[in-house]
Each structure stands twice: as C-alpha cells, then as structure tokens.
Amino acid sequence: MKKILIVDDQPDICRLIEVILAREGRVFVHAPSGEDGVALARDEQPDLILMDLMMPGRLDGLQAIRAIRADAAIRPCPIIAMTARQFDAKDREKAESYGVQAWLCKPFVIRELQEMVDGLLR
Questions:
Q1: For residue 85, how many other CB atoms are within 10 A of its CB?
Q2: What is the band of 91 on the pLDDT scale with cuts at 50, 70, 90?
C-alpha cells in the first residue's frame, strides 16, 4: 500500500486530490495545518507528501517541510509543494533548498498531478 499525506487547509482540495489520485493500493491521510502535517508524517510514515505552502497556523508549508527534513525518520519522503501563487525562480530555488522534489500551481492540471505523483511513487 502506498500512503499519501495531503496537507491543505481546504477540505475540498484534499478530497479533489484524493479522487484524482485514487488507485488500487493507495491510501490517503489529510492534515489541515503545517503542524498537523508534521505530526501525521511522523505517525503515518507516508510514501509521498503533498504540501500546500500557504496555510494558517504556527507553521506554513515551507516551515512544515523544514521540520520534516529535520527529522531523520521522515526526511527521505518525497514532497510536492502546492500553492495558488505562481512559482518564480526564487520560489523554486527556496523550495528546492528545503528538499521539495516537485511543485504545482493551483489550479493544477490533472494529468500533471497524476504524472508527478506516479513518478515519485515508483
């Protein structure tokens, strides 16, 4: 079973991503904040994390990614960063320096999301 952690404060986005990525042998876990995302990543040991970068609370997406990368037990998990903002070169460089393997702009292209996730889960 491949476990995917979706960290996004909008339940409709989480559900949409789950429907798009649903395949036999995949399970999904949702977290509404960066803090919850870090805790669930530790508890659930996902195979992939989709992390919204702009979230309310103590930790935004990039801060949550830094916390995940600081934890040896979950550090290797691939992360896809998602944001409603356009990623410019500076944003991409910063995300990559935090250990992000890929990024998506919302609204995302369904096929692009599927291919990205399939590639990282192989």
A1: 10
A2: confident
